Amino acid sequence: MTSRTPRPRERGIPEATVARLPVYLRALQALQERGTPTVSSEALAEAAGVNSAKLRKDLSHLGSYGTRGVGYEVEHLVHQISRELGLTQDWAVAIVGIGNLGRALANYGGFGTRGFRIEALLDADPAMVGQRVASLEVGHIDSLEEVVGSRGVSIGVITTPAEAAQAVATRFVEAGVGSILNFAPVVLNVPDGVDVRKVDLSIELQILAFHAQRRAAGDGQVAAAPGLELT
After folding, report:
1. In a designed cystine with 95, which of 58, 72, 79, 157 is the match (CB 3.0 to 4.6 A)?
2. 75 plus 55 within the same structural domain
3. 103: domain range?
4. Which pTM value belongs to this model?
5. Which residues fall under the DNA-binding region feature (predicted)?
């Protein structure tokens, strides 16, 4: 019988906690690079942008409670979170859609140090096929199924135009890929058991615009108040 590490939600870790674990890990790795051996919950929470009570509760799901008066051992906590997120393994990734965003992702050097290996780049444009990007030769989308099987791809990244994304997702799923990162501005329909994370940059910008507008409105109200008093 083959054993495997339980996934976070199988161990009862809330999805909201799972979403914050990479943020904690990034803060801890920065501390590790500076040679910091221990960190208090308050300092780590501040670095991660959450309150300390929430951080302590999140980490308690991993069985990590820290030591009173000392805090958390940075190296140990990095290992714990990395293991929980599956980053102690090597995950093969295929990117479909090698436009500007696809190229940027392929050239990003941070994936390799975090347990992700860009194994294949695929595109439907004949002019793109055969080009080399980040030391990889771009293959044709027609080879997706063969690439997934032969190179052990576990995670598919979609950076295609919206109209092509669903077809690519369906092919990933049928080829056995259970995790998809979608940058296309469209909601994908996938079977139960397939995990999709959606990154929509336009939505994020709109949310920022909302907050910027609120701040500007607040500043305007403050500035207008003295004028009203003088009238």
Report:
1. 157
2. yes
3. 91-199
4. 0.75
5. 23-62
